[in-house]
């Protein structure tokens, strides 16, 4: 009885842009691919700001990873959070609730993404949540819509204007899009339904270390 030939196994940690791009690039390769992800979905981060401002629901920007890769025969998606990587034994240990799985690999690709950085000022997170996950976007949505509601019930014009003033730190694509969307939310979406808010339209400001950080958008803001 002959032993089946060993098939090269590539383990990919993460199902974001990097992880899925790597998996798809191996579609026609003579390898087995295992994608390990702690979430069931692939998050399209560039549209998080639209979830934060109530334009899109979270499901619209987070299709399931298995659905995306369903036609790729050499790939398997394993749900779990990676706990350890043993380079000597060439294994990855992941955990899903109380179940641990050890996955061997011949090649390993780590595409686990990044965390929000406050540049040594982590206490800022309490007042200014980042924009990296669905939970971040939903937290921002609650704060933005909550500010409009608080302004609506306030009888103090100074307090109302304070509630309708938003500061966005960072003038990259996400910061500029968020700032513009807040203004649009006030002018188009809420103006007809929120009498006081329509009379005191929300304002938003972008703060950045680089005055012309996004020249592509800068002209429309000058």
Order of helices and strands: EHEHHEEEEEHHEHHEH
* Number of helical regions: 8
Whole-angstrom Rg:
23 Å
The largest sheet, given as strand count, sense and whether it forms a barrel, is:
4 strands, parallel
Shape: elongated
Structural class: alpha/beta
Low-confidence stretches: 195-201, 217-222
Question: Helix amount, in percent?
Answer: 25-40%
Q: Which fold does the CATH topology of the largest domain refer to?
A: FAD/NAD(P)-binding domain
How large a portion of the residues is in β-strands, by DSSP E? 15-25%
The fourth-level CATH homologous superfamily of the largest domain is: FAD/NAD(P)-binding domain
How far apart, in Å, are the first and last alpha carbons?
Answer: 76 Å
Output mean pLDDT.
84
CATH architectural category of the largest domain: 3-Layer(bba) Sandwich
Number of strands: 9
CATH class of the largest domain: Alpha Beta
**Total number of domains:** 2
Spatial order of the strands forming the largest sheet: 3-2-1-7
């Amino acid at each position: 009885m002959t032993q089946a030939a060993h098939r090269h196994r590539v383990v990919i940690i993460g199902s974001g842009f990097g992880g899925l791009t790597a998996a798809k690039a191996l579609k026609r390769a003579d390898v087995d691919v295992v994608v390990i992800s702690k979430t069931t979905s692939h998050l399209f981060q560039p549209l998080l700001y639209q979830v934060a401002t109530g334009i899109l629901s979270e499901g619209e920007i987070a299709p399931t990873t298995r659905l995306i890769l369903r036609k790729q025969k050499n790939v398997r998606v394993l749900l779990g959070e990676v706990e350890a990587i043993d380079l000597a034994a060439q294994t990855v240990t992941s955990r899903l609730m109380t179940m641990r799985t050890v996955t061997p690999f011949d090649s390993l690709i780590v595409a686990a993404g990044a965390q929000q950085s406050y540049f040594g000022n982590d206490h800022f997170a309490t007042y200014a949540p980042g924009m990296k996950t669905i939970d971040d976007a939903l937290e921002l949505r609650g704060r933005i819509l909550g500010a409009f509601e608080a302004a609506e019930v306030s009888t103090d014009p100074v307090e109302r204007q304070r509630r309708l003033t938003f500061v966005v730190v960072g003038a990259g694509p996400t910061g500029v899009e968020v700032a513009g969307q807040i203004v649009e939310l006030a002018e188009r979406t809420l103006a007809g339904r929120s009498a006081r808010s329509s009379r005191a339209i929300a304002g938003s400001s972008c703060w950045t270390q680089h005055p012309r950080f996004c020249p592509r958008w800068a002209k429309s803001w000058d």
